[in-house]
Amino acid sequence: MALSNREIAQIFEDVSDMLQIKGEIIHRVMAYRNVAEAIRDLPRDLHAIHADGQLNTIPFVGKVMEEKITELLTTGKLEFYEKLAAEIPPGILDMLRITGVGPKKAMQFWQEAGITSVDELEAAAREDKLSSLSGMGAKTQARILEGIESLRRRAANTRTPLGIALPAAQSILDRLLALPGVGKGSIAGSLRRGRPTIGDVDLVLTTNDPEPVMKFFASMDEVARVLGQGTTKSSVELHNGLQVDLVVVPPERWGTALVYFGGSQAHNIHIRELARQRGYTLNEHALTKLDGSGEILCDTEEKVYELLGMQWVPPEIREDWGEIELAQQHRIPTLITRDDIQSDLHMHTVWSDGKFTIREMAEAARARGHKYIVITDHSRGATIANGLTVERLMAQREEVRQVDAEMSPDFRVFHGTEMEIRADGTLDFPDEVLAQLDFVIASLHVGLRQPREQVTARLLNAIRNPHVDLIGHPRGQLIPDRDPADLDMDAVFAAASETGIALEINANPRRLDLEAQYARRAVELGIPIAIDTDAHRIDELDLLSYGILTARRGWVQPHNVINTWSVEQFLAWSRQRGP
DNA sequence: GCCGTTTTCGGCCCGACTGTTTTCAGTCG
After folding, report:
1. Is the overall model pTM greater than 0.70, yes or no?
2. Residue A434 in 3-state DSSP?
3. CA–C1' nearest nucleotide, residue A61
4. Domains of chain A in sequence order
5. Does nucleic acid strand B have an atom less than 7 angstroms from the CB of A178?
6. What does the pLDDT average to over A414-439?
7. Across all residues in chain A, what is the average pLDDT?
């Protein structure tokens, strides 16, 4: 079976790690890591690119990398990788995933203590064998144990991030929908509900002739193995490890099937109780009368809910978090949609670590239907991201004003910043600088592992600065690699509520921060929400849909969201926020 | 190892934080 892009990317990633452990110069290490990243981001299959003779158009792919990719594509193997793998025990690479353990420590554990796996490392730490190694002490040993525990939590969680699963699922669904005889189709399950991570992909289709559909499904290129294949349900595992379940029903049973496989389990259990109270049993096939007088078929979800005496419930809020009671009263709130959005208030340009100019980002945002944007490059403290000094910030303002003048009045470009909340709690720009900006985001990027009191105090300090309009990705999580900061969210919400500052739903699927449950809490407290992409490239402006999904899961309505406001409303709000 | 270009080789985001080592190495972002 041909290797997938993801598998090939992983091989380059592993080569990079192994070279680094061996002490190879960092730039050669980075060359392999860059290629791995580039391959992961590819919108096309490597085999197709190779067939077109276009491998060398991929970023960071030169002569050597082209040869190695070709070797993998044609033979399924890479000799260079095999040689390294024979030299370095695989458990050494696993150790790199422990926070606080890098290539040097991993090598040291191996060479000086004979440790070749995370398990052995954990045992050694528990037996106090690490603290005596040169350059280490009790604190390092304790830190490593903590890191291992965190790693285990993450490893136990084998769920797939939304941002990976959704495009993969959509691609499969599109191909299934193109088959003859197929009517409707939808992503179902936790993916349809927009959960930040998902266990597996559920797809539901209608057709009266399932057999060719199931055959096609099981023989798709990305299928690694078929876990089961029947006439109504099939299940496969893809090369990237993702499990995909397909359910096929006749068109007249579409509504019940979609509700059933849409979940959540808690929601389904609750509405099945309601069905019982009304004299039915509810399953994926139909509502069946308990008195044995037959089935009622539902070809739409609306019909299912109607028969249960309820309003249709948007899938994103089917969690049994109170939506069923509201639906019975026909009082489900009108959730925000993509069409409500007027603007994107958080994006980066070549001035810091973005890839496109102010003008290019502005035009791309306009092409996506936005009416205004704010340019919010990093501040000076984010040195790694080429953060702006005060001088560069002032110079940037000239360019923003220029582009704004050229594009207004139908489209407006405003000048802002994504300012570092420094590790010591101070802000990266003084108030007199902030006062000159149209919009100020403050974000935590460093010191995310500080104790709760300390990291919370830093965030509160930013919230209480009247020049700050928005807290960017408040909790600082990275899905699935990094847990959120240990923030006292009650204190954060209280301060936000008091000051009128806005909190962000960062739409990047790696962040989705605030997550739904926090967004809902913010909305309940009357705290304004901003849904932003934090785009560093033009195509990332399209990540907005993930933010919308997350907001809907958080019961966010259009009026809660700054980005739905007109330019005039937005400006009025941000001006009255200043001191 | 790639890239850009001074077309042949130097530069490649580099400062903060931590812990331990008293002057810095390792890790992280």
Report:
1. yes
2. helix
3. B2
4. 5-154 (1.10.150.110), 160-249 (3.30.460.10), 253-328 (3.30.210.10), 338-576 (3.20.20.140)
5. no
6. 94
7. 90
